[in-house]
């Protein structure tokens, strides 16, 4: 393609040779077609003459057909000769084409070699430039590494100096902290001892004050309790005496009523009345004994609490009511 673009005359020659070759290939077929057409025309004329009828007419037509056949044959011969000449021209054109192709291939190879040489030269130049740039980059990198190493060494030296100063400061701070801790521990111990002594003294004072207050409260409470117990005992004794007097009066009245009722009743036998009287007397004696015992218990338990005394009084009243119920039942039976 490179050679064809730079040699347009040789390209035109190749196109003309291709056109001649195409025409040479087409001419034999055209001559054959003309001969075939002439033979067909002659055959048709002969057939027409045979079908015409009279000999004179047939002979004329046959002669005409023969002349047409000869003309066609001559044209076919001429076409064949022309075809041979065209074939020779085509062979010459093919030979010229081959020669031009060889020359074009040689020129193309030379151009290719020239382009390859130019490309190789450019590649060598680029490689040399790249190598030079690589050397410059390597030199710059080496210089940068050296500068970085120097900076790192300086930084390491500064770090060591800073670390030494920090270690010294840490040791000084640790010593000061230890001393402050010792002082604080001593002060804390002294403060704790003083606080413990003050707490012990305050506790002792509080204990004495609490003991005195408790003693005072105990004495006051004992006096108040004794006074209240004496008042309750007096009230309970007076109430018990009054209840006993009332119960004795009621029992005497009931006994008199029962005796009068028994004397007035007209019974066939005295034995039931006697047994009833004995039972009434025994019950009255039991009541008196219970009242005396209750009175003794009230006197003995006069120092007890008011709630216990109320319970005893309630029990005494319940017993008195029970006795009255029993007397009423006996009177009812009688």
From TrEMBL:
Question: Which branch of life, at top level?
Answer: Eukaryota
Q: Where is the composition biased (Low complexity)?
A: 1-18, 206-228, 235-265, 281-295, 302-334
Write out the entry's keywords from A to Z. Answer: Coiled coil
Q: Does the keyword Hydrolase apply?
A: no
* Coiled coil, from the record: 163-190
Q: Where is this region: Disordered?
A: 1-28, 120-139, 206-334
Protein name in the entry = Uncharacterized protein
Question: What organism does the UniProt record list as the source?
Answer: Eimeria praecox
What's the source species' lineage? Eukaryota, Sar, Alveolata, Apicomplexa, Conoidasida
């Amino acid at each position: 393609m490179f050679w064809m673009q730079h040699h347009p005359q040789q390209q035109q020659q190749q196109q003309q040779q291709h056109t001649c070759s195409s025409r040479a290939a087409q001419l034999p077929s055209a001559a054959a077609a003309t001969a075939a057409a002439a033979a067909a025309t002659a055959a048709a004329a002969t057939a027409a003459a045979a079908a015409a009828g009279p000999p004179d007419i047939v002979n004329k037509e046959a002669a005409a057909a023969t002349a047409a056949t000869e003309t066609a044959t001559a044209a076919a011969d001429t076409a064949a000769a022309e075809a041979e000449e065209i074939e020779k021209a085509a062979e010459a054109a093919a030979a010229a084409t081959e020669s031009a192709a060889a020359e074009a291939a040689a020129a193309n190879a030379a151009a290719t070699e020239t382009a390859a040489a130019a490309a190789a030269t450019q590649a060598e130049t680029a490689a040399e430039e790249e190598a030079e740039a690589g050397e410059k980059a390597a030199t710059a990198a080496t210089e940068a590494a050296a500068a970085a190493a120097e900076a790192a060494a300086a930084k390491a030296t500064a770090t060591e100096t800073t670390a030494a100063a920090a270690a010294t400061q840490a040791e000084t701070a640790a010593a000061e902290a230890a001393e402050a801790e010792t002082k604080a521990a001593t002060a804390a111990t002294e403060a704790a001892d003083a606080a413990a002594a003050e707490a012990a003294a305050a506790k002792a004072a509080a204990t004495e004050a609490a003991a005195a207050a408790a003693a005072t409260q105990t004495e006051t409470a004992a006096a108040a309790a004794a006074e209240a117990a004496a008042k309750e005992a007096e009230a309970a004794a007076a109430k018990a005496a009054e209840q006993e007097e009332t119960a004795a009066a009621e029992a005497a009245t009931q006994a008199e009523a029962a005796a009068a009722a028994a004397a007035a009743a007209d019974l066939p036998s005295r034995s039931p009345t006697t047994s009833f009287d004995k039972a009434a007397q025994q019950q009255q004696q039991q009541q008196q004994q219970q009242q005396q015992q209750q009175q003794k218990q009230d006197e003995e338990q006069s120092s007890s609490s008011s709630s216990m005394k109320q319970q005893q009084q309630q029990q005494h009243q319940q017993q008195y009511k029970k006795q009255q119920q029993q007397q009423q039942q006996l009177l009812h039976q009688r």
